[in-house]
């Protein structure tokens, strides 16, 4: 039971931490790209703003990596964004493998406890050379507690592992879309909807970005 209890504590901690960390408002703020466009238009995009952007959110880290290398052309900018995105995704997936492992081993720990309990029960009966159905049933019932406990830990852990993995996938798609918009507004040749940001032709946006 002790390993199962430890697994339950670890799973609860991971779930709580990841639910807090993977909030969409924290990872992909909806206003961020519009704020970046405003900085570009007002010619305020400098190293201090890039540092502020990196510290803002995981999406900010990706956008800052692209902006810092925007003068080197579209391909270099995209490569830098991809490298930053790989680091961000690794951080978003932190502890999820551990949660999946807990979901996998908790039932096995419960089954192991039940098997060891059954071995002890039958060994005791054989040693005493006696058979009492009531006592035997009580011992088996007690041995099955570990299996039930293992399942009680594994089922929520598996559910939240799948749920959090799905959330990471959705956040990654959102960040990818925002990064594409950034590349198009700085390097592209088409209009881009920046949400809360003022709209302008992409060619004008590119000129403003180069001036900044």
Would you mind describing this structure in some detail?
This protein is mainly α and 212 residues long. It is rod-shaped, with a radius of gyration of 27 Å. The protein has helices at residues 2-21, 24-27, 32-41, 47-56, 58-68, 74-92, 96-128, 133-143, 145-187, 202-211. Helix 1 (2-21) packs antiparallel against helix 7 (96-128) and helix 5 (58-68) runs antiparallel to helix 6. It contains 10 helices and no strands. Residues 196-212 have low confidence and may be disordered. The longest helix has 43 residues, at 145-187. The protein starts with a helix and ends with a helix.
> What is the rounded Rg?
27 Å
H-E order: HHHHHHHHHH
Instruction: Quote the average pLDDT.
Output: 82
Summing up helix and strand content along with how strands pair, one would put the structural category as mainly alpha
- Specify the helix fraction band: over 70%
What is the rounded distance between the termini?
62 Å
- What form results from the Cα inertia axes? rod-shaped
Number of separate strands? 0
β-strand percent reads under 5%
User: pLDDT under 50 segments (min length 5)?
Assistant: 196-212
The quaternary structure here is: single chain
How many separate helices?
Answer: 10
Major pleated sheet: none
Indicate the topology.
Elements: H1 2-21, H2 24-27, H3 32-41, H4 47-56, H5 58-68, H6 74-92, H7 96-128, H8 133-143, H9 145-187, H10 202-211
């Amino acid at each position: 039971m002790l390993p199962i209890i430890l697994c339950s504590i670890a799973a609860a901690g991971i779930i709580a931490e990841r639910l807090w960390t993977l909030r969409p408002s924290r990872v992909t703020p909806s206003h961020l790209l519009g704020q970046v466009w405003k900085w570009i238009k007002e010619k305020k995009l400098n190293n201090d703003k890039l540092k502020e952007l990196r510290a803002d959110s995981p999406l900010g880290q990706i956008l800052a990596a692209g902006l810092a290398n925007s003068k080197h052309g579209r391909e270099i900018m995209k490569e830098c964004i991809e490298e930053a995105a790989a680091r961000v995704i690794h951080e978003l997936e932190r502890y999820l493998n551990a949660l999946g492992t807990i979901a996998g081993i908790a039932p096995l720990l419960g089954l192991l406890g039940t098997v060891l309990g059954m071995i002890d029960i039958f060994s005791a009966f054989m040693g005493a050379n006696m058979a009492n159905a009531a006592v035997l049933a009580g011992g088996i019932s007690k041995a099955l507690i570990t299996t039930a406990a293992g399942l009680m830990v594994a089922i929520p852990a598996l559910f939240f592992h799948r749920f959090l993995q799905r959330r990471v996938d959705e956040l990654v798609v959102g960040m990818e879309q925002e990064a594409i918009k950034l590349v198009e507004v700085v390097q592209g040749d088409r209009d881009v909807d920046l949400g809360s940001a003022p709209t302008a032709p992409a060619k004008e946006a590119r000129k403003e970005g180069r001036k900044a």
